[in-house]
């Protein structure tokens, strides 16, 4: 069987409800591998199918599910699972309430659980289709770039899958599946362009190390092919800079995994003996290895994270300016020089034509055609807003309380909006070209997937993990140069320095779908109930003592039925792990 067919069968076996994204772009009936390799048009179609699928709607095959609008939806899901972002229920307009409420539908038997799994493995399909269509020994520069792009996109996809589905200890769960198997450190099955249907049906959850090594191999190969190939045509496709950025993310993820400071309260740490399974019978597949700290590996990979973040910084543009941040027409809706990788809606996009199922609808309070403007208002958590220094221009991306000296200094697409906008409402993501009334204009926006600013914060944190004073110097330099000149972090301990780095990173990347990963990676609590909270009391006001169990995503029942390799190894549902505070 040709590799391209193996790829299609593999993904179909995992997610049989997939929409035919690649089939729409390129009919595969009767096509053989040699034809794909010989046709620049065919491989070009496979290349552009990757960013095309990122903005795909109707993964679940029905227009009834208004959370179903591609990778931007995955970003929003992750954000509402933190305490950075508050979304008003708005009389039912918040289609993402299940994820913020830690609802029962996050369990394996429900469509809400199925949606992320289907989306990501459909994305794996698009990358495998391209990778399988190009010979590894090609000498064509364009083909080399295309192959590198496919590998980079696959690495991006699996890095997200790994960090979302990886089981990490928390105080609400004991590190075992409901079948009594130890599952800490397990991620998700790996499917490549050569995986057969038979292998897919007996495909275990990859361990942390297996997944990390797989991702790094793809990124190292992507670096090689991109270095020898043509340049990326635009920022909706990965460049060598994006590859370095993904390496920085991956090394940081791995370093934290082996840093004992972030292990949490459960699971074997530091060589402690661990019974691999509660069952006396032999586990199938073999149970996960005990999770032990490895300070040397953690230190080495913190250094690697800082190294690759600096490589990305050296190739990218300068951080966004105050004018770029706060523009009422182009603010966070236009690809800027600091953006390394992005998504771009066009007027013909299905998501734009729906008016409702797109980024602007859910993230821009000023868009009168969307869900946010209709009542599902998006805000920054009050505790984070109040910690931002008034001299920091980023604070003006949110509505100030009336008691604040910043009140009235915010800029709106339409000044009349100020009358209806409450404290902490977001003004970060503007409708396209300031078009608040019309989705045909306002929904045509770009969305950042990676900005150079993230690399500065990765470099600062990774450095601080090894040399706190130097990491603090990097933070001070970035903030003084690009955010406000009088900034100075006076923290002295390693823990305080890293806390401040992560806080500034969370403000910088608010709403961009990335803060989830730091909360989970660093074993941080989620705190939504406090004296001046703007979370709706009794709706999603959970306070967790450490990383929330809901950040360990559950694998959908459909996959368990089709894949014997993961049976008995699923993550328990997080439902009712925490009391709702009223």
Describe, in short, the structure shown.
Helix content is 43%, strand content 3%.
Structure notes:
- With 582 residues, the protein is mostly helical.
- 43% of the residues lie in helices and 3% in strands.
- It has 23 helices and 4 strands.
- It has a two-stranded antiparallel ribbon.
Structural features:
4 strands, two-stranded antiparallel sheet, two-stranded antiparallel ribbon, globular, mainly alpha, 582 residues
Oligomerization state of this entry?
A: single chain
Instruction: Give me the secondary-structure category.
Output: mainly alpha
Q: In percent terms, what proportion of residues is strand?
A: under 5%
Helix percent band: 40-55%
**Any idea what the shape is?**
globular
Number of helices: 23
Report the radius of gyration as a whole number of Å.
23 Å
Low-confidence stretches: 1-35, 267-288
Output mean pLDDT: 90
The biggest beta sheet is recorded as:
2 strands, antiparallel
Strand and helix order: HHHHHEHHHHHHHHEHHHEHHEHHHHH
Terminal CA distance reads 59 Å
Strand arrangement, major sheet? 1-3
Instruction: Find the count of extended strands (DSSP E, 2+ residues).
Output: 4
Give the topology, please:
Blueprint: H1 3-14, H2 21-25, H3 33-38, H4 40-54, H5 71-80, E1 85-87, H6 97-101, H7 111-132, H8 141-165, H9 197-200, H10 208-228, H11 240-257, H12 295-315, H13 322-326, E2 339-344, H14 350-353, H15 359-363, H16 371-374, E3 378-380, H17 382-385, H18 439-442, E4 446-451, H19 452-466, H20 468-482, H21 494-508, H22 515-521, H23 557-562
Antiparallel strand pairs: 1-3, 2-4
Helix pairs in contact: 1-7, 4-7, 4-8, 7-8, 8-10, 8-11, 10-11, 11-12, 11-19, 12-19, 19-20, 19-21, 20-21
């Amino acid at each position: 069987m040709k590799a391209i067919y193996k790829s299609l069968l593999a993904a179909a076996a995992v997610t049989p409800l997939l929409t035919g994204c690649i089939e729409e772009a390129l009919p595969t009936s009767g096509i053989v591998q040699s034809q794909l390799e010989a046709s620049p048009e065919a491989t070009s179609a496979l290349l552009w199918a990757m960013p095309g699928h990122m903005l795909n709607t109707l993964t679940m095959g029905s227009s009834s599910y208004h959370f179903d609008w591609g990778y931007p939806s995955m970003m929003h899901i992750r954000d509402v699972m933190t305490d950075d972002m508050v979304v008003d229920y708005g009389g039912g307009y918040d289609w993402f309430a299940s994820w913020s409420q830690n609802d029962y539908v996050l369990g394996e038997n429900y469509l809400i659980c199925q949606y992320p799994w289907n989306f990501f493995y459909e994305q794996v399909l698009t990358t495998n289709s391209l990778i399988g269509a190009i010979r590894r020994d090609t000498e064509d520069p364009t083909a080399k770039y295309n192959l590198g792009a496919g590998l980079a996109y696959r690495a991006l996809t699996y890095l997200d899958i790994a960090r979302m589905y990886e089981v990490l200890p928390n105080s609400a769960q004991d590190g075992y599946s409901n079948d009594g198997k130890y599952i800490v450190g397990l991620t998700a099955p790996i499917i490549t362009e050569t995986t057969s249907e038979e292998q897919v049906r007996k495909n275990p959850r990859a361990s942390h190390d297996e997944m990390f090594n797989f991702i790094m191999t793809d990124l190292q190969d992507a670096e090689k092919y991109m270095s020898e190939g043509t340049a990326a045509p635009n920022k909706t496709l990965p460049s060598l800079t994006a590859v370095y950025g993904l390496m920085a993310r991956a090394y940081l993820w791995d370093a934290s995994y082996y840093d004992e400071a972030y292990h949490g309260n459960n699971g074997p740490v530091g060589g402690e003996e661990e019974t691999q399974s509660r069952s006396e019978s032999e586990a199938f597949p073999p149970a996960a290895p005990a999770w032990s700290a490895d300070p040397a590996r953690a230190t080495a990979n913190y250094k690697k994270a800082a190294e690759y973040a600096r490589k990305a910084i050296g190739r990218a543009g300068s951080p966004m300016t105050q004018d770029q941040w706060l523009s009422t027409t182009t603010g966070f809706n236009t690809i800027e020089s600091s953006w390394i990788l992005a998504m771009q809606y066009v007027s013909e996009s299905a998501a734009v034509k729906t008016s409702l199922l797109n980024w602007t609808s859910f993230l821009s309070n000023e868009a009168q055609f969307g869900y946010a403007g209709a009542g599902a208002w998006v805000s920054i958590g009050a505790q984070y807003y109040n910690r931002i220094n008034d001299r920091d221009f980023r604070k003006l991306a949110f509505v100030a309380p009336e008691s604040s000296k910043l009140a009235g200094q915010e800029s709106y697409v339409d000044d009349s909006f100020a009358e209806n906008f409450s404290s902490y409402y977001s003004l970060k993501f503007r409708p396209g070209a300031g078009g608040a009334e019309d989705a045909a204009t306002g929904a045509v926006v770009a969305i950042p997937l990676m900005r150079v600013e993230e690399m500065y914060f990765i470099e600062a944190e990774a450095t601080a993990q090894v040399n706190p004073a130097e990491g603090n110097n990097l933070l001070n330099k970035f903030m003084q140069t690009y955010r406000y000149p009088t900034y100075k972090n006076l923290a002295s301990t390693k823990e305080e320095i890293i806390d401040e780095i992560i806080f500034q990173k969370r403000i910088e990347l608010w709403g961009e779908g990335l803060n989830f990963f730091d909360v989970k990676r660093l074993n941080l609590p989620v705190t939504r109930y406090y004296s001046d909270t703007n979370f709706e009391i009794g709706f999603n006001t959970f306070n967790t003592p450490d990383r929330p169990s809901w950040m360990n995503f559950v694998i959908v029942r459909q996959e368990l039925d089709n894949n014997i390799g993961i049976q008995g190894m699923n993550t328990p549902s997080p439902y009712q792990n925490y009391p709702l505070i009223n």
